[in-house]
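Hi V.,

You were right to ask for the full record rather than a summary. Here it is.
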Amino acid sequence: MAGLLVVFFPLLLLGFLLFMERVEEPLRRGTTEADVAEFLDKADPEDLDNVFRYGVRRSLERWRNRRRRLPKLAALVGRQRQE
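Predicted structure:
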């Protein structure tokens, strides 16, 4: 039993550290003034409502995620039209 603990504990610890790295990464990346200015210039009214509901950090995160998905969706729609 102790042998299994010796083998699996480092693996579990490594898995936990990798998980925590993914959790901490957005917290380390700060929001710059340029990000906020771009957000305010290009945001929809819904995005601005989200600022008041959730705060700047969460609103910017949702906006960035949506911007990342747009090229993927455009490529998918383009493929479907070609077929």
